[in-house]
Amino acid sequence: MEEDFKVIDNYLMVKMPEEVDHHKSVYISETADEYIMKEGVGNVVFDFESTRFMDSSGIGIIIGRYKKISYFGGKVFAINADTRIKRTLMICGLHKIVEIME
Amino acid sequence: MKTKYENETNRGVVMKNEMQLQFDAVSVNEAFARIAVAAFVAPLNPTIEEISDIKTAVSEAVTNAIIHGYDAEFVKESNGTGKNLVFLHCTIEGDVLCVEVSDKGRGIDDVEQAMEPLFTTKPEMDRSGMGFAFMEAFMDDLEVFSEPYRGTTVRMKKKLGTKPWFRQED
Asked: What pTM was estimated for this model as a whole?
């Protein structure tokens, strides 16, 4: 699962799993934080390409990382989200703090 | 003319079905619970959208039972007496699915406050406080019964087949 995290320049790329729930979210949050602290990256990109299911735990991951990096002026991006994931993000108003891109 | 439900032999007879599950309050079972409910409603020919809604709502309820119902402090206090179990009870009556998720855990002190969007007792665990809001958004009806140190029951209902099976333009 290490290969799901990659640092490119000032961006941490996180490849989200097929199902994002509480069971997986703990590991993702902890590992992402490790990278943010260790590598000192400014921005985080969540890649939802293979994600087919996400509940509020996914929202927690994004808000948590946003709080960490926005403190230093960083940004959070969500890419390759399908309509379902987009809807979930919109319900929580996350499109106001996260840039949702194709 | 085709009947709406594959397993409906006599037209006009209301379809009834019921199932119960109990499992350990561990996070691997969240996926198990939502997939079990999704499989249970399959005879009603739900749309992909409806299945996603149901899976999300079940996942929220079961996650709540596991991390809030049997929260670490409560489990320590109760000294490991008995097993920490989550109960799942589903019924189908006609085209209405009813899902009940119960635990015998910590209970909720203030149900109304707990149901407020973004309210959470565990911000340090990255919980967003959107669980009940999601259940309300994705299901038609939501009831929460809880008593501190007795447990919590969440009852959700959803009527299926209210939308056309093809995707409509937003």
From this structure: 0.89
